[in-house]
Amino acid sequence: MNALETAVYPYDRMRLECIYRNPDALLPETGISEENLRKVYGEDLCFPQESGEYPYAYASMVTSIDGRIAFTDAPIGPFIASKNFLAKEDSLIDWYTLNMLRASADGLIFGANTLAAEPDGTGHVYDEHLSRAREAMKGVAVPWNIIPTMDGTDIPFGHITFTSGQIPVILYTTRSGMEYCRKALGRKAVVIDSLEGCPSSLDTSAVYIAVTGEDRIDNRLGLKMLRRMGIRRLLVESPTLAHIFIREQLLNELFLDYSCVYLGGSALTIGQRFPSFTSQDHPHTELLRVYMHSSHFMFFRHRLVYNVKEG
Amino acid sequence: MPSNLKKIDFPYQEMKLKELYFDESYPKALDGADTEGIRTVLGRPFYFGREPEDRPYVYNSLVTSIDGKIAFPDSPQGPLIARNNQYAGKGGTVDYWILNLLRGSADAILTGTVGINAEAKTGGTGHCYDEQIECYRESQGHSPVPLGIVVTLFADDINFNAAIFRSSEKPLFFYTTKKGADRLIASQAKQVIIIDEDHIIPISEISTEHVYALVSGEEMFDHHRGLRILKRMGVNRLLVESPTVTHFFIQEKLMDELFLDYSCVYLGGDAKSIGAGCRSFTSTDHPHTKLISIYMYNPHFLYFRHQLIYGNEEAEK
């Protein structure tokens, strides 16, 4: 069994300046605590008091100054950061930020197309120090990889995520998707098809299939099920899922890294295949933190605010 | 004396911004504007760094959502991105005031027909509504009202009912092609004066008695030529209010700065972004920017000023 890839970073050169800290933001719960994190961000990553029946869900993305999340000729998200040729350490900080958010999460949710696009990539914490800190805090180093699929046919079951034996997986699907996945997995899976049937803790050596709806994925039920299974904090890594979760008022925060490049035109934006919010009904956000490393990159942390009406 | 155009009594004291970042290396060579109101809101005068010799210094003004959207699909007036931010407080007023600051700092303002058509019913005439800034312009020897320029390829997309075309204090000035100029000559009651590289009219001689057509190309725009002509007319600073023209000018490396106000609302989906419908920049060839300043009104509204940097080779150095 090969060990998952890890890395260490030049933390001293990655120190961010917090140019805005919202004095009203109450963040009493520690997401991840680690010495190098405090060097980079000046503090541990903390979250609001946990409450409710859903996981606390937050998304992470890097955008250009005009809100683009991918180049049309090379649609790989991290390029928006790494192709900022003036950024120096900023694109490393973008990657480190994703690691920090993974380290704080009990589960990561991303699209099946990510597996197809990144044959060697796995949803774990690459930063060695954060990974160790996570293991010390949560007892396990790797967060649950939660993969939504309507019918299972888009999942590459030969991907390292399924074959390495080191990535705990929950397939998040429909009843027909469950049938397909069970056959295609080639190993025993634990099927959970109701809120009442959710175990309060999970066995990391098992693969779980969460049936969230009959013919369609029901995210409200699905996230309730995940919460029952012990997923208290959920990192949403897919921009499309982030948009869908915002539509369903299930996303709590957006971590938007802002790379000072301009793409314009028809390059991809968040949730572009879906209808937009309207002028009368759209979510608002409140900035919790704004960080800078150079004048070519910013790091925003937004809290989403729903049901804000005119006046 | 100030123009008779409508003015707004901006509540400067309530619009004070917090400066989160300012690049002190930005050259303070040229005044943009310096009034009591500006010093109250920004905490310092408003500067520009340089003036190119062969074209105007070009900057834009846009407000975007946190995901880069510039208009709601159901109500495509740009200002709604600011106005429909219910937590903005006076932050939306600041967004509008910054547009006025940028208008007042310009010798000319370039507007697209799409924007004029979308906002035809608002009665806006595209001038600077801040009287202090208008007076400052005059004190510096400029006309109180910047020259309004409408960009139109063939002059077949103009809503002449819009207020911007009906003001008695604003000359009609089009940035067009030969084909567009021919159409204007055929359609306008007033004499249409052609401006091109062989026939330059100083900006001070532009009057409401005529209609003007700046011909930048035959059937397509030649923006390099168009901006050369504007510079020779005396336009040293040009504000671009059209998102599409902003994109075209960036493609031609003619845009110097971007003023992007950041309204903390989320639209997502298929709402319009800058340069929608046009070709994007690629992963190997795209402009970079450097932040000049970041201001905040409250945790729901920020104001960015970017300097554009072209050429990957230059960037990689």
Structure description:
- The complex is a heterodimer of chains A (311) and B (317).
- In chain A, helix 3 (90-104) packs parallel to helix 5.
- Chain A is an alpha/beta fold.
- Chain A has a single domain (11-305), classed as 3-Layer(aba) Sandwich (Dihydrofolate Reductase, subunit A).
- Chain A contains nine helices and 13 strands.
- Chain B is α/β, with parallel strands linked by helices.
- Chain B has a domain at 50-160 and 238-316: Dihydrofolate Reductase, subunit A (3-Layer(aba) Sandwich), CATH 3.40.430.10.
- Chain B is built from nine helices and 16 strands.
- In chain B, a hairpin with a 2-residue loop joins strand 15 (288-298) and strand 16 (301-309).
- The longest helix of chain B has 14 residues, at 91-104.
- The interface between A and B is large, with 63 and 62 residues.
Essential attributes:
heterodimer; A: 311 residues; alpha/beta; Dihydrofolate Reductase, subunit A; 13 strands; globular; B: 317 residues; 16 strands; 24% helix; disordered C terminus
In terms of DSSP E residues, the strand content of chain A is 15-25%
- Note the main sheet of chain B: 7 strands, parallel
Tally of separate domains of chain A: 1
CATH class (first level) name of the domain at 50-160 and 238-316 in chain B: Alpha Beta
Q: What strand line-up does the widest sheet of chain A have?
A: 1-12-13-11-4-10-5-6-7-9-8
Average of per-residue pLDDT values of chain B: 92
User: How many distinct helices of chain B?
Assistant: 9
Low-confidence stretches of chain B: 313-317
Going by helix content, strand content and strand pairing, the class of chain A is alpha/beta
CATH class of chain A: Alpha Beta
Order of helices and strands of chain B: EEHEEEEHHEHHEEHEEHEHEEEEH
Could you please say which CATH topology of the domain at 50-160 and 238-316 in chain B applies here?
Dihydrofolate Reductase, subunit A
State the share of residues found in helices of chain B, binned by percent. Answer: 10-25%
CATH homology superfamily name of chain A: Dihydrofolate Reductase, subunit A
Q: Give the end-to-end Cα distance of chain A, rounded to a whole number of Å.
A: 60 Å
Number of helices of chain A: 9
Radius of gyration of chain B: 19 Å
